[in-house]
């Protein structure tokens, strides 16, 4: 019986693959048709052809992506429930197959449902207690294109206990997925999404949704699947406005970058918090106490004051030389020009244009009056020439620049940090020690905590020059033209419904090096996204939240994180506090919604319990979660034979070697404080050359050496913690750092302690 069923499923899935192959052949044919078009020397036709070619190439790539595990589920409707429904007369089967994309046969009858459509919902949500009109759910486990196993759940609610009613769904498929070796890259979980996760994935697009969950509860996986779900369900809106996914580090982005493409979504902007200001890619972290100061909202008003203070009315009249003609610049001329320019409340650099205009007009009148008083004839027609003389006169330039200096965000921040006297004038209530925290050289690289400050400054400064404002306007018009051209081209090619105008316009832009929606969004500081996903959100400072609020004024956010894992010094200690800069005080009560995830899919029970116990002992606000499995290895603790770095590094090498003896193919994360990193890395790299990598590089190697900060959000088959005590005591949030470190393994944990000094 079981084998007959397996054969039956194999036959069905083979049919699906045949259809997939047909679609791929069609796309290839369309591509050939496009390529064989005779477009002669006409540049526009050529670029239109190339843009179409890309659409079909992308389609082929998307069909290739879903080849693996194309179909993974089947729902059988309950006959009684079916009779009650408005059953489709053509629908002669009680079965619905669920897969990575939707497929229809040549008669347009659905043969595979995209996992994101509402009809696929029961595959993830139905339980014996709430079967949602479903009689049974079947998981199809496959290897390549072949179904190797089927697993059934029959929803028969009679005789259920509460415990049974809340069991995991597709347990066999889930366990198979959870125990596979890790590769340094995250995979999608479409086939085994659990009910509590699915509810979050399908939650409404509007509003601020916060997802709290302990380590390994699938927050990242859920956030990414939610992005894919929203892009599918709200394509029109999100395709043009874009979706931004923010993660803590580049290593993390590298870890997650394959998930969305494998779900068929490529146009999402992924950025680390250090990459949120276009043109600057910050990787350096400030010392914790510096990051705290830079993260406070007080920095916003400091920046505003700093900018305002760059408008200066001279105390005394100034003597100017205008092409040999002496001219007195009275302070009231500057004061008046400043006041007039500020009336319109434009950003600083834009208002400066009016300031210069008013000041030059006043000076022109003064110069004309002076020339007349010397007996010259000056009439209205000469004013233009006089204004030009003034504009180009060196003294005038210096005087106007001193009164209202043109500023870029970078220059403002560099000045603020490098000129202690100026900072002191701006911060009379700060202690000298606090001011000293901001002090640094002008040419020091910007840090991750500087990014929101640059953005804040840019907000007040506006466009640095008129050219970039004009360029911005031109870009917007060009986009409109691209879309119109794409719509015409789609009509001409007779592929309406097959090709989206936005996609084609993206290709026009890309081919003309103007950038796709995602590229333009990433490069444009003033871009506003349709939805923003923030991962490891507990780390964000108020200033970082302010930046994100500007990127998402529609307030459509998915925020995932774990307050107990907050290790950044500037991070919040509750979600209420964290979302305050995003939703504002008035909306703090009802402007956001909170969901919780409670099942740990990553870490085996014995490791998760030890980590939770340690965290609770140190007063962290832990969300208790239940691990879905045990592993056979107990936690190993070893003590180095001495206190020196060399001895410690040797003990780590021994631990790694012992672990590789258990499993020679798995990934190992070696987590150490920044101080111990180098010695540990050199010992490992020397013993295991080519197999060991530092930081993000480690994700492509078997052994990855990194700090707890870098390990955030990542996972490994096995983890070796180096000098547990140093991690715990190394920073104000040491317990969080240790909690993060202890919850990275999927199988084994070794803790190496430093030995005592003799
Ligand atoms: N429903 C699921 N089916 C299969 N695997 C899952 C499922 N949910 C989560 N996982 C796996 O569990 C692991 C942990 O998930 P994820 O990294 O999303 O957790 P997290 O809550 O973001 O963890 P952390 O807070 O520690 O970063 C990943 O390997 C993920 O693929």
UniProtKB/TrEMBL annotation:
This is AAA family ATPase. The lineage of its organism: Bacteria, Bacillati, Actinomycetota, Actinomycetes, Micrococcales. GO terms for molecular function: 3'-5' DNA helicase activity; ATP binding; DNA binding; hydrolase activity. ATP binds at residues 213-220. Keywords: ATP-binding, Coiled coil, Helicase, Hydrolase, Nucleotide-binding. GO terms for biological process: recombinational repair. PANTHER family: DNA 3'-5' HELICASE (PTHR11070:SF45), UVRD / RECB / PCRA DNA HELICASE FAMILY MEMBER (PTHR11070). Residues 192-604 form the UvrD-like helicase ATP-binding domain. InterPro entries: (+)RNA_virus_helicase_core_dom, DExx_box_DNA_helicase_dom_sf, DNA_helicase_UvrD/REP, P-loop_NTPase, UvrD-like_ATP-bd. Residues 6-33, 454-496 form a coiled coil. One of its GO terms (cellular component) is cytosol.
